[in-house]
Amino acid sequence: MTKYLLAGGGTAGHVNPLLSLADLVSKLEADAEIVVLGTAEGLEARLVPERGYELQTIDRLPFPRRPNGYALKFPAKYARAVKRVRALIRERGIDVVVGFGGYASAPAYRAAYLERVPYVIHEANAKPGLANKQGARRTRYVGVTFAGTPIAHATVTGMPLRPEITTLDRSALRAEARAHFGLDPARRTLLVTGGSQGARAINRAISGCAEEIVGAGAQVLHVWGGLTELEDPGVDGYHVIPYCDRMDLAFAACELAVSRAGSTTVSELSGLGVPAILVPYSSGNGEQRFNAAGVVRAGGAILVEDNELTPEWVRGTLIPLLTDDAALAEMSARAVTVGTLDGTERLYDLVRAALEAGNATQA
Q1: Which domains does the chain have, with CATH numbers?
Q2: Is the pLDDT at 13 greater than 90, yes or no?
Q3: pTM surpassing 0.85?
Q4: Do residues 56 and 85 lie in contact, with contact meaning Cβ atoms separated by under 8 Å?
């Protein structure tokens, strides 16, 4: 029986691939023991127990970015976190640690190293986070979503994705998917989404051209997100929903998507061959622009900045593309050349390789 410690959390980009790996381990190894390490504040505090996995928590410890009072206290706090994880590894007899970034990962990597337990890293973004970059120096088992990610010992595994995405047949489910959202089954469809929190630039630009998009013969499924300051444009054929818990069906329903460029979204779109207009989130460390680079370079997506997403751009570029079957088919074919749907299996293989190497070292 193998005992796994999966570390990560904070955002969906860290939690969802962690859960995808946990589900595959549970499927392939009926006697495996899985413990998840996270924080009490992140999404993992809700999502991990909901999925039926045990969650152990440590304090949320962001790396200090400037010299201040917190920076002076950080070393002692970090040492306590590492001590806590080391004790957990010993008490539970953990065989391997797998980290996905986020606040819980850095102490887990350090603890695994000190306990001489093999550890594996998965980096979701094309621009790696600090915890993963530092942790990668002491392990040869680093899975990355995107080729060219600047991190030590990288092996391209792709993104661990949900089974409802990896098994999706978009063509076969298109009519059912459109019916699910109350769309016309025979009308070409534009999917618009800014993620669960929404995206003001995308919402404003696309909804502001609702009449022109619909007038070109298309319909729109617009996932508004958590933003409330904008209203449904009230155009027949323009369907607004606040959230979408069946993104698999949303992908099946559309011919073209307008979206932010989070690593999971880019991986899902390219793996499924959905032509996309990617609008990277401009804040943060700019990782979304890097996430989009591969599929844009391959010709499977178009990159547009927030300030470029104007009514003129929608009229001059988006609408002609949406109505061009040949161009959409070409983009779809190009997207799948850089996409992958077996990221969970590839990461699992990397974890098993680390386990085998660790066992050989100890023999």
Answers
A1: 3-161+342-362 (3.40.50.2000), 164-335 (3.40.50.2000)
A2: no
A3: yes
A4: no
